[in-house]
Amino acid sequence: MASPNKQQDKHLIVGWKEWVDLPELGLRRLKVKIDTGARTSALHAFSIEPFAKDGRQWVRFGIHPKQNNNEIEVFCEAEVTDQRTVSDSGGHKESRYVITTPINLGNEQWPIEITLSNRNNMRFRMLLGRTAMRGRLCVDPNAAYLLGKPARHSKHSH
Predict the structure, then answer these.
(1) Residue 1 lies in a domain
(2) Which of 49, 14, 27 is nearest to 141 (CA)?
(3) Whether the Cβ atoms of residue 80 and residue 50 lie closer than 8 Å to each other
(4) Which of 16, 14, 23, 11 is nearest to 104 (CA)?
(5) Looking at the domain assignment, is residue 20 inside a domain?
(6) pLDDT single digits (tens) 57-108
(7) Domain that holds residue 97
(8) Does 149 reside within a domain?
(9) How far is CA 7 from the centre of its chain?
(10) Looking at 26-73, which runs of residues are DSSP E strands?
(11) Within a domain: residue 31?
């Protein structure tokens, strides 16, 4: 019997939560919630400050990369690719900066759009939304961390 969904054969199968790296931001081993209910990916950020660099709009922001630990702070910079109004899970509208950066998930890497928002009251520091998953991932809602933890590197770059 043929597979009911041939598309699934070329997709990476992930659990409802996974580990990712955002190498251009210097962020390693972030826990991410795979959120099919969210269109856009979101990253927890605080102290979000826009600035100009080479005539382009950039943003500097802080992140607490470990869940339940506000002691560790990493500051990142990225070029702003858009600014848009996003509705959160409670239906509140918020204007957010959008950046585009590569994500490492399992052995795959591809660029994704991420909105920056203070998610301090949320369980996960990052949500991976549908746009970033499209054509690449299939989600098994019964599984978690199917792809394992990214290997530790001896050097941690920021």
Answers:
(1) no
(2) 14
(3) yes
(4) 23
(5) yes
(6) 999 999 988 888 888 899 999 999 999 998 877 788 989 999 999 999 999 9
(7) 6-140
(8) no
(9) 24
(10) 27-34, 41-44, 46-53, 56-63
(11) yes
Q: For residue 155, is pLDDT > 50?
A: no
Q: What is the pLDDT of residues 31-51, one digit of tens each?
A: 999 999 999 999 999 999 999
118-133 residue pLDDT tens: 877 778 899 999 999 9
pLDDT of residue 152: 67
Tokens of 126: 């990052």
Residue 133 main-chain phi, psi, to 5 deg: -85, -25
What Å distances lie between residue 33 and 5, 30, 43, 126, 128, CA to CA? 24, 10, 11, 6, 6
| Residue-level pLDDT at 86 | 86
15 three-state secondary structure: strand
Predicted local confidence at residue 51, as pLDDT? 97
> In this structure, are strands 126-128 and 137-140 parallel, antiparallel, or unpaired?
unpaired
d(CA 119, CA 126): 8
Number of domains in the chain: 1
Q: Cα separation of 123 and 94, whole Å?
A: 19
In whole angstroms, what is the distance from residue 134 CA to residue 155 CA?
32
